[in-house]
Amino acid sequence: MSPGCKTKVWIPICKAGMRIDIITVLPEMLEGFVHESILARAAKKGLAEIHLHNLRDYTLDKWRRVDDYPYGGFAGMVMQCEPIDRAISALKAERDYDEVIFTSPDGEQFSQEIANDMSMLNNIIILCGHYKGIDQRIRDHLITREISIGDYVLTGGELAAAVMADAIVRLVPGVISDDQSALSDCFQDGLLSAPIYTRPADYKGWKVPDILLSGNEGKIKDWEIEQSLERTRRLRPDLLEKMDSPEGELKGS
Predict the structure, then answer these.
(1) Phi first, then psi: what are they for 100, rounded to 5°?
(2) What is the pLDDT of residue 244?
(3) Closest Cα to residue 167, out of 197, 143, 187?
(4) pLDDT at position 18, please?
């Protein structure tokens, strides 16, 4: 990566296991997700654990309601202060948290850089938004960071929490057997990845580029950078616009 570019170089740091607590009104929606694939592997290795908390368990309402009508006559329903405060306070009484995140369409855009930074934290709370949103006082006093996964609105923040948990946990050293695989993912250097191929070298006349079969590491690296730049320029030119240096400087990085 050229030193003139904005994207920070991410270096995985070995640390104690990470913990992510997700507060939601729909824990069933996430149960299957957190017990499969990368997240399940991380838990089995003792490298990361994800705990789901039903927000309704923290309400004092006999009907287990966690929402109410908004002041001012606005449309929709709003998640109340008390159950959220009780849930977050209960978790904070057990351990310290680095971030208390609220999934919100008006939060900062989630990115690989944010995932890299969060993978080096120890304990994170993710509060899933629902209905019209949460009482502003929770955002003012308890939330440390608001994050969006895109400029669109979902029924709830559960899918956003799942996306973030997966992107973060897979970066914890040891979760993926080959750490270099995570280092070479798309966006780690601010660019899209180059095309990838596997055996056979010739399938129905569709051939793997000769350079990848040459064994010449230097030329293969140059090809990788050139292809990465070409794909980024063609598919995501906005990524190049975010960089300080001219495209040509990247090749020599």
Answers:
(1) -120, 105
(2) 52
(3) 187
(4) 96
Closest CA to 18 of 42, 52, 44: 42
* Alpha-carbon gap, residue 54 to 62, rounded angstroms: 15
Structure tokens at 202: 């010739």
Strand-pairing partners, residue 206, are: 203
Q: Are 101 and 126 in contact (CB under 8 A)?
A: yes
Could you please report the per-residue DSSP string of 143-164?
Answer: -SEEEESSSS--SBSHHHHHHH
Helix orientation angle between 37-44 and 158-169, rounded to the nearest 10 degrees: 60
DSSP conformational letter for 97:
-
| Regions of the chain short of the pLDDT cut 50 | 1-10, 245-248, 250-253
20 - beta bridge partners? 50, 124
| Length of the chain counted residue by residue | 253
Reading the block at residue 201, the tokens are 């070298």
pLDDT of residue 253: 43
Q: Of 5, 13, 38, 8, which is closest to residue 165 (Cα–Cα)?
A: 38
Summarised one tens digit per residue, pLDDT across range 205-216 is: 999 999 999 999
End-to-end, the C-alpha distance of the chain in Å comes to: 5
Residue 211 CA to its chain's centroid (Å):
34
| Contacts with 151 (C-beta within 8 Å, 6 or more apart), sequence order | 105
- Residue of 160, 138, 139, 140 whose CA lies nearest to 151: 160
pTM (predicted TM-score): 0.82
